[in-house]
Amino acid sequence: MMDGAMCIMHHTQAAARTVEDQALIVLTQRGEVLVLNASGTWLWNLLASAQAVGELAASLGARYGLTPVQALADVQAFLDSLLAVEAIVRVSASEGVS
Amino acid sequence: MERWLHLRIGDTRLALETRRLPATMLADLARRYTAFADAETTAAIDAFRLTVCVRPGAPLLPWRADGVLPLRTRRIGRWVLCVTPGEVGCFDLAARRGRITLRPHGNVENCLRVLVGWEAAQRGGLLLHASGVVRQHASSDTRQHASGNTRAAGAFVFFGPSGAGKSTVARLSARWPVLSDDLVLIERTAAGYQACGVPFRGNEWTAPRLNVRAPLIGLLALEQAPHHARLPLSHGAGAARLVAATPFVTTCPHGAAAVMGAALTLTAMTPVARLQFRKDDGFWEVLQ
Q1: What is the pLDDT of residue B204?
Q2: Which residues contact B150 (CB under 8 A, 6 or more apart)?
Q3: Which residue of A has its CA nearest to B236?
Q4: Is residue A1 part of a domain?
Q5: What residues in B contact A13, CB-CB < 8 Å?
Q6: Could you tell me if residue A93 is inside a domain?
Q7: Which residues 6+ apart lie within 8 Å of A76 measured at CB?
């Protein structure tokens, strides 16, 4: 389970472009490409700078009308999947939480 | 014996300085790449100049137990580095010069693939894991034979990961010119995109490799299925499939960004479709 205060941002080895509300992410260390849906793309764009998990969940809940519990669960699942493929990294809070 | 080997692969001109190579290795190189010899050696001033030499020693990378060739590429500033157990290449993309050092069992081909991939990406093209088939107008066949030229109507490029069916498609299309069953070069030109054959064949000497280029008319992402169907893909999804099929260059963020830009521009001109196919040539009917 992720701590809500944990901070996350893009991995430096991931290159991405957004096309028609879909983020294309090249995982250069794995030779794989991810394509995110609209809500995933919206979260991905926020992760250009370090973000706290709790803040991301609050933003997602406000945007899509989710309960705090559901928003946190969705964000955690999303971040877990990106961490597993090294598209994002955990960073310290001092690296620029917005 | 000539100590320079001039090659043209798509729009990449290469001048290989080979005087440090043993005669047997030089003869093998000339034989392997004869169809891609660049007749316009006066254009060598524009060529990417490569010094090739042999240096005995231990493997530069450990071999893998599964038989897959280990190949590492890295870009550092204007330099691209490429290392395999038998070769190391170092290419200055800005000065268009480089060096390939081979172990005695090595082969320049692995380094040339990487270099051609980077060169193409810098021009807005892509070196794809793909097979390519040139479809000619039936009415022009007689003229083509009479003139000795291949005047192609256009090229279909079938791409996908290992096992997707690239070689199968090539084998089922043998009545037309097959550019390759492994790598196809897409070049962006003033007249539009063109599909080009490449000489790379690894150890598969029997595989088709034609030095032919033709206007690109179809980009198909291969999917094996019990039926034939051509299905649309969104712009972004099509570009993503192309990026995933582009080796060597996408191993660093700079290269990945260049390839994504090239793929997005390409798919705006020539959309990618999914081709679901079974192992017979009936798939051509859904491509008409």
Answers
A1: 60
A2: B134, B136, B144, B177, B212, B214
A3: A19
A4: no
A5: 252-253
A6: no
A7: A1, A2, A53, A57
Sign of CA dihedral B138, B140, B145, B151: negative
Classify residue A2: in a domain, yes or no: no
Residues of chain B with pLDDT under 70: 1-2, 41-45, 136-152, 202-208
For position B143, what pLDDT does the model report? 41
pTM metric for this prediction: 0.85
Structure ipTM over 0.85, yes or no: no
Structural domains in chain A (count): 1
Q: Report which DSSP code applies to B209.
A: B
Name the pairing type of β-strands B213-224 and B154-159.
parallel
Residue A20 has pLDDT above 70, yes or no: yes
Question: In 10 A of CB A48, how many CB atoms?
Answer: 11
Of B234, B243, B247, the CB nearest to A26: B243
The better pLDDT of the pair B140, A43 is held by A43
Is residue A98 included in any domain, yes or no? no
Distance (Å, rounded) from C-alpha B112 to C-alpha B144?
Answer: 31
CATH number of domain containing A76? 1.10.10
Domain of A78, in residue numbers: 7-86
CA B14 to chain centre: 14
Give the pLDDT of residue B144. 45
Q: Give A3→chain B minimum CA distance, Å.
A: 29
